[in-house]
Amino acid sequence: MRDPRPLATPSTDGPPWTRRHFLAVSGGGALAAALPWSWNGRGAVDWTAVVLGSIQDGGLPQAGCYTDRCERARSDPHYVASLCITEPSSGRAFLVDATPDLVRQMDLIPGDSFRERAARRRPFEGILLTHAHIGHYLGLALLGREALAIDRTPCYCSARMADFLATNGPWSLLVEEGRLDLKVLMPDRPMRLAPDLEVTALPVPHRDEYSDTFGFVFRGRSRSLLYLPDIDRWDAWDRDIESVVDAVDIALLDSTFYSAAEVGGRSQEQIPHPLVTDTMRRLGHAARSGRTVVLTHLNNSNPVLDEGSPERAAVLDAGFAVARAGQRYAL
Fold first, then answer.
1. Do 114 and 93 meet the contact criterion of CB atoms below 8 Å apart?
2. Which of 70, 128, 216, 298 is a plausible cystine mate for 65, CB 3.0–4.6 Å?
3. What string of H, E and C letters represents the secondary structure of 162-180?
């Protein structure tokens, strides 16, 4: 009989999870189709997406940066890009990317119930990871034995990301100790996280030194949200970004650089990201016609971070929003 579960669910019960075990599951045809999506109305709650941070992996201030922008941020730090999907009354929360700023970001998740869960070592219903660049998974270390020491928690990611975590320390220790329960997401296959919350992983082209890269579409009872903090270029994707944004209500998108002049003599081919000016050109109609298009994952060099800059004014005048920790979007 075909396994009806939407995922491969590597177990950490019994022997430690190893590369051999991972390949046996993910390569042996055990990944099954996602459950069909339909509302059953039972246990429906109001999910909220909370922005936990909006800065590129290096943070703001960034190491070795002494510009006016970084100096101001030393007394008003901006956190690395991350998201939480939460239901405050119950304390249930799904973390999207685990950043080096995780300790302070957890304080932004609303509700006493969440804090009670965290104090019991199970803050998250699940953790979803986009890829293996430093701003997106290093925070997992803060959940391990030396710190919070979380109880067994599902960790949703690509097959390659799961393999990386399972076979490289210190992440492998989180798996072997049963703290992370790796669950492989099937690309472009909706998966239900709760009776009234689903996620679909979208594969995107991005530097893949250790893993491939996902964006996520979350759908609640009323609204949908695209979270895509990293991609090389919009025209390198095998789908049309305008169509993807048109299919959701809210889109938080990679906006690392405003212009190519920011890379400081380095080739942008080494650190490819779509320019904000290109995103504005492609998605200006969507931003003006009712879609909430939000710029996130901003580099410390990006002038959009400056409240009074002409670049920020141009972004806002075009109908776009700029992400900042604490923003909330109802789903």
1. yes
2. 70
3. HHHHHHCCCHHHHHHCCCE
Stretch (H or E) spanning 46 = none
Parallel/antiparallel/unpaired status of strands 126-128 and 180-184: unpaired
Tens of pLDDT along 283-331? 999 999 889 999 999 999 899 999 999 999 999 999 999 999 999 999 9
This prediction has a pTM of 0.85
Cα atoms in the 13 Å half-sphere on the side-chain side of 199: 29
Buried b (16+ CB within 10 A) or exposed e, 86-113: bbbeebbbbbbbbbbbbeebbebbbbeb
Q: What is the fold of 46-330?
A: Metallo-beta-lactamase; Chain A (3.60.15)
Secondary structure of residue 321 in the 3-state scheme: strand
Q: DSSP characters for 171-231?
A: HHHHHHTTSEEEEEPPTT--EEEETTEEEEEEEE----SSS-EEEEEEE-SS-EEEEE---
Distance CA 260, CA 277 (A): 10
C-alpha to C-alpha distance for 281 and 99, rounded to whole angstroms: 30
Q: How far apart are CA 197 and CA 93, in angstroms?
A: 11
The dihedrals phi and psi of 192, each to the nearest 5 degrees, come to -85, 120
Paired sense of beta strands 197-204 and 213-219, if any: antiparallel
